């Protein structure tokens, strides 16, 4: 994995946005996998700012969400469909049809999961997948003990994840108990993975994903199997790493070969 450490959360957003923008500049019809939650918000707002200034054309994107809560209507303000409408559809100038979200309101959720897999395949697969990481190491809503080859499916949210997400809801009991999420096997099929993490709360999960064994206990550790996985971390999120890491604030060219800054070096693959 390629590990990039920058000073703060703002720098994480800028660096990651540079990676995404470079891909879109070279391939305007990029199929972009989009994560939700607080970690990637800075990326989306930076991309939207560049679009508003005329520096980036986002009109030809196709986006696929990682997951959606079961039991929340798409128009519910805490649904991920609503989140993506606020952070991507309108700011990027896209039609809603360009941003696909798993249909977790369906009566037959297994059928909805299969159709989502088929939709991703019909689009030619995801070119660049944006990811966050949970404090328990989940990516998407693939909680610990998820199969490393899992596909899009219904999963139960762990107590830790529900507690972490309670800040987005009026009451802890309002947090949904289940979701429809892309599986780890689905995520690994993306052409490139871009994971961002900010803050000391994520440090233990980041360390387990990067330096620990590949294990279902830390679902994000599966990124070690991907040939083009980049983690962009602020110093607090990287504070649990023990192996020698360089700081590389130079923007990625989008071809997977970011120029190294003075005295920097990529983290060796785990």
Automatic annotation (TrEMBL):
Region Disordered, residue ranges: 244-270
Catalytic activity, as annotated: alpha-D-glucosamine 6-phosphate + H2O = beta-D-fructose 6-phosphate + NH4(+)
First-level EC class: hydrolase
Pathway: Amino-sugar metabolism; N-acetylneuraminate degradation; D-fructose 6-phosphate from N-acetylneuraminate: step 5/5
Domain named Glucosamine/galactosamine-6-phosphate isomerase: residues: 10-224
Transmembrane segments: none
The keyword Hydrolase is assigned to this record: yes
Composition bias type Basic and acidic residues, residue spans: 245-256
Keyword Nucleus: no
Keywords of the record: Carbohydrate metabolism, Hydrolase
PROSITE patterns: GLC_GALNAC_ISOMERASE
The EC number(s) this enzyme carries: 3.5.99.6
Low complexity bias spans: 257-270
Pfam families registered for this protein in UniProt: Glucosamine_iso (PF01182)
Catalytic residue positions: 67, 136, 138, 143
Family per record: Belongs to the glucosamine/galactosamine-6-phosphate isomerase family. NagB subfamily.
Task of the protein: Catalyzes the reversible isomerization-deamination of glucosamine 6-phosphate (GlcN6P) to form fructose 6-phosphate (Fru6P) and ammonium ion.
Alphabetized NCBIfam families for the sequence: nagB, PRK00443.1-4
Name of this protein: Glucosamine-6-phosphate deaminase
């Amino acid at each position: 994995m390629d590990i990039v450490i920058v000073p703060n959360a703002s720098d994480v957003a800028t660096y990651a946005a540079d990676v995404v923008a470079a891909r879109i500049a070279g391939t305007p019809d990029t199929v972009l996998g989009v994560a939700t939650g607080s970690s990637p918000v800075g990326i989306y707002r930076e991309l939207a700012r560049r679009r508003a200034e005329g520096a980036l054309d986002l009109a030809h994107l196709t986006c696929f969400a990682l997951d959606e809560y079961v039991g929340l209507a798409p128009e519910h303000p805490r649904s991920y469909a609503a989140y993506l409408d606020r952070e991507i559809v309108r700011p990027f100038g896209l039609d809603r049809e360009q941003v696909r979200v798993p249909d977790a309101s369906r009566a037959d959720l297994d059928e909805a999961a299969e159709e989502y897999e088929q939709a991703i395949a019909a689009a030619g697969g995801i070119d660049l997948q944006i990811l966050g990481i949970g404090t328990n190491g989940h990516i998407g809503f693939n909680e610990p003990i998820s199969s490393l080859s899992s596909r899009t499916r219904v999963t139960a949210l762990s107590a830790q994840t529900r507690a972490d997400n309670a800040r987005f809801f009026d009451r802890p009991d309002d947090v949904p108990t289940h979701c429809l999420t892309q599986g780890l096997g689905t995520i690994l099929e993306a052409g490139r993975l871009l994971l961002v993490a900010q803050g000391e709360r994520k440090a233990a999960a980041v360390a387990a994903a990067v330096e620990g064994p590949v294990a279902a206990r830390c679902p994000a550790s599966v990124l070690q199997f991907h040939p083009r996985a980049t983690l962009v971390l602020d110093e607090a999120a990287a504070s649990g790493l023990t192996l020698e890491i360089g700081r590389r604030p130079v923007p990625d060219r989008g071809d997977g070969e970011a120029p190294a800054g003075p005295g920097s070096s990529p983290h060796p693959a785990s």
